[in-house]
Structure formats: structure tokens, C-alpha cells
Write a structure and sequence with these properties.
This protein is of the alpha+beta class and about 170 residues long. It has one domain: Cyclic phosphodiesterase (Cyclic Phosphodiesterase, Chain: A), CATH 3.90.1140.10. About 25% of the residues lie in helices and about 35% in strands. Strands 3-1-9-10 form a four-stranded antiparallel β-sheet, covered by helices on one side. A four-stranded antiparallel β-sheet has the order 2-7-6-5, with no helix packed on it. Strands 4-8 form a two-stranded antiparallel sheet. Helix 2 crosses helix 3. It starts with a strand and ends with a strand.
């Protein structure tokens, strides 16, 4: 089962991102229902493995915290809103990585770059991505309080991925 762990966005942040998306001349926009900040992409896992991970995530303890978005950047064929450095977010990510190891999920190491994908581009649309290479000020985006995170199943479809929440975890 293709899955990931992410922080859902508040309605205020989604609403603030919408004008940024509308201003894009090309690309496939990510629907507001699918916008999230990924903490870990799990790729394909068995139900049994995800159940083990669920048990580990239930044990996780971390306080709620706030995050601020600081700019727009492109990562390959993706345009994203990036989060400012946030020690509490990094600590949560590390705790989730530990829970994954305890559930015997071993994935390639990747640098944690907290972001929200807002559009995807085809290779021929690369010039549009280059227009937004440099980070810009995101004063229009509200600070967001993070009170939990979610384990999602992701099903790929021609019109885009469909994300279904499997379990939600409250920060405490």
C-alpha cells in the first residue's frame, strides 16, 4: 500500500495558497484537498507493516507547535511553498523516523525539506519552473498551528493522486 505521513494544512493556509496557484501560467495544480506537508514518504508497505508503524506512532509524544511558510521554491518538476526552519518540526520528523525504524521500515536517507507541493510541471514546462527559482516573501500566508499528523494511503490515478487518511495522531 503506497503511503505517507503528513501534516494537514489549515483552511486559512489553503485559502492563502489558492491565489498563488491561480497566478501560475502552466502546470497541474495540486487540489486543496491533497495539500499537505510530508513528514515521511513510506512508498509501498504491507498492511502488517503499517499496523506496526501505527502502534509505534501511537507511542510518540510531542507538543503542538506553530509553523510559518517562508517562500516558494521549485524542486525538479514541482513547485512548493517551503516552511521556515522550525526546531519542533524537525524534532517531530526525527521521532517519526525513529518510529519507522522500530516498525522495521528502512527507506533511503533524504534531507528533510519541509514543503507543501502546490503544482507539478511536465518536462516541457521547465521554463515556468525557472521563473520561480528564487524564494519570495510569503507574508500573505498565516502562521499555522500544528496539533497532529496523519498516516495516509495514496492511490495514483490519471487525474492525480487520491489520499485517504488511515489514522490521525494528536500532538500532546
Amino acid at each position: 500500500m503506497r503511503s505517507f505521513i503528513a501534516i494537514s494544512l489549515s483552511d486559512d493556509v489553503k485559502a492563502a495558497i489558492a491565489p498563488l496557484q491561480r497566478a501560475l501560467p502552466v502546470g497541474r495544480l495540486v487540489s486543496s484537498d491533497n495539500m499537505h506537508l510530508t513528514l515521511a514518504f513510506l512508498d509501498d508497505q504491507t498492511e502488517e507493516t503499517l499496523e506496526e508503524l501505527h502502534e509505534e506512532l501511537l507511542k510518540l509524544s510531542a507538543p503542538p507547535f506553530g509553523i510559518t511558510f517562508s517562500g516558494i521554491e521549485s524542486f525538479g518538476q514541482v513547485l512548493a511553498v517551503v516552511a521556515e526552519d522550525c526546531p519542533a518540526l524537525v524534532a517531530l520528523h526525527q521521532k517519526i523516523q525513529t518510529a519507522m525504524r522500530r516498525a522495521e521500515i528502512v527507506l533511503p536517507r533524504r534531507r528533510f525539506r519541509p514543503h507543501v507541493t502546490i503544482a507539478r510541471f511536465k518536462p516541457g514546462q521547465r521554463e515556468a519552473v525557472q521563473l520561480v527559482q528564487h524564494p519570495c516573501t510569503m507574508s500573505a500566508l498565516p502562521k499555522m498551528q500544528v496539533t497532529g499528523f496523519t498516516l495516509y494511503q495514496s492511490t495514483l490515478r490519471p487525474e492525480g493522486a487520491r489520499h485517504e487518511a488511515l489514522a490521525h495522531y494528536v500532538l500532546r
